[in-house]
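Model it.
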Amino acid sequence: MPVAIITGASKGLGRALAEALAARGWDLVLDARGAEALKEAAEAVAGSGTRVAALPGDVTDAGHRAELVAAARRLGGLDLLVSNASALGAEPLVRLGRLPLAGLRRALEVNVVAALGLVQEALPLLRESAAGAVIAVSSDAGAEAYETWGGYGASKAALDQLAAVLGVEEPGLRVWAVDPGDMATGLYAAAVPDDDDPRPEPRSVVPAFLRLLDERPASGRYGAPALVEGR
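Modeled.
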C-alpha cells in the first residue's frame, strides 16, 4: 500500500486528508502537537483498516522529524509527504507594526524551516517511490497583501518558493504547493476570532488534493477551488 506522512493531522484539513487517503487504502504516519486529539484522529482513520502510526510532537524538532520518516520506513517506504502543520505568528493576527518578532520566527520555523527539514529527511525514501510526491499546503496570503496577514503570508510565500525550487531540483518527484482557499478551521478562527462568516469545511477541498494524486500534473502551485471545479 502507498504510504503518506501528514503533519498537522489531528484536525482540519490534515485530518480530512488522512481520512480520504485511508479510504483509498493508504497507510499513514500522522503528526500533531496535541497527543489526545491526534490519538482520536488516528483511531477514527484506522477504522477503515489502514495502518496508522500517530506520533505527537513538534515539527520544529529534528528528532521528531526523523521519527516520522522512520515510521514511514517501517510501513514500507514513503510515497507522499504533506506539510500541513502551520503557525500564525500571532493569535489573533496583528498588523506588522505590532507583530512580535518571536512570533514571526515561530511562523518561519514551523511553516518553512521545519517543512524543508522534513523534506530533507524524507528525500531518500521519496526518491525510491515510483510516484513520490510532496504537497506544501500554502495560502492565498502568500500571494496577496491582506492586512494583518503579513507574517503568516511571508512564511507561506517562502514555502511556495521552496516548493518551486524543489520541483526543479527533483524532477523525479511531483512537488505541489496548494492553496486550499477559505476554510472553516481552528487556525482561521484563531487568526480572526471575530469573523463569523460561513466558510467551507476542509473536506470540501480534499477532492482537489486527490485529483493531483490521480492526474499527477507538473510540479507547481495550484489552487484547490479551481481543481475542485475541474479547471
